[in-house]
């Protein structure tokens, strides 16, 4: 079928790239060792600190988020180290597998993929660890596979209550720039992120924000690395340069995306995502369907995962929405395949974009013969009005 207008990319990353960012990247490639590049490099390295809310260094890799996961492990841990992780969903499970491949001994606290990290379990596990064998607590902030956001500030307080020296390593690949996150204030040691979700860029950049404690750990850990080595990066970064060819045009985009986030204001960006998320949940409730996340204090501002009624295939529904309305919705991953669909409401999403997306979902439910009530779209509009009135 021929298409008009733009495709609705309503998956929870990659998210749509704003026109402003696309135009900013439409530039000739410059000499990455020349004087012009140093200015760009310094600007983006400095700008990242504002977005990660840190005074410390942020390293930018030409990689996907998965690369930044690996960078975090190889720079801070040693083979045989014990770490504490939580089965919040697909991404936590993948990060765990990666750690295991590096010879890390992972204690993986089981979960039902409907809740975030339980700070009380963090405290109990660390208090039990009298020999201080656990070297890190590794948490996925926003579990993109489930639409559940873990309470990282509370996890920090739990670690402090146990008076435990473990590093706190946090994946914010889908939350940075969409959900409130504070690297310094929350005492996070490494914040891992990626370009293509809340940062509104194309895929291709990975980030690690590094605390002093994490940097100290990197001086004595024993895992081998070369491409990912923090010290190799930080030396030329001091003048805005990189040890190998950076993704120059993505950095032009990054400079623009950071400017957009700071112009709107981070608190306003986070509040907008909360409003869009609340309206989406109002729609789901209006349809008589179920939000996957079971804990209201952990509802994701980034995406909403919707449980398909028994006997209906979420992927068949998503195919109809794509064919009929040219909208991509997120699939259920691994054990949730076919059982849920995910609505992304992150990045440059605004109220009318969201209403378009929710209309497509409601029409798609109808077209796919999925039992539901009418009125989800209306409930979302009502929620957005109420959100505006304060
Ligand atoms: C997308 C995502 C990843 C994987 O990032 P890539 O850029 O695909 O490597 C990891 N963790 C979370 C929470 C994600 O949302």
Automatic annotation (TrEMBL):
One of its GO terms (biological process) is glycine biosynthetic process, by transamination of glyoxylate. Its cofactor is pyridoxal 5'-phosphate. Gene3D superfamilies: Aspartate Aminotransferase, domain 1, Type I PLP-dependent aspartate aminotransferase-like (Major domain). Pfam families: Aminotran_5 (PF00266). Its EC number is 2.6.1.45. Coiled coil: none annotated. Belongs to the class-V pyridoxal-phosphate-dependent aminotransferase family. This is Serine--glyoxylate aminotransferase.
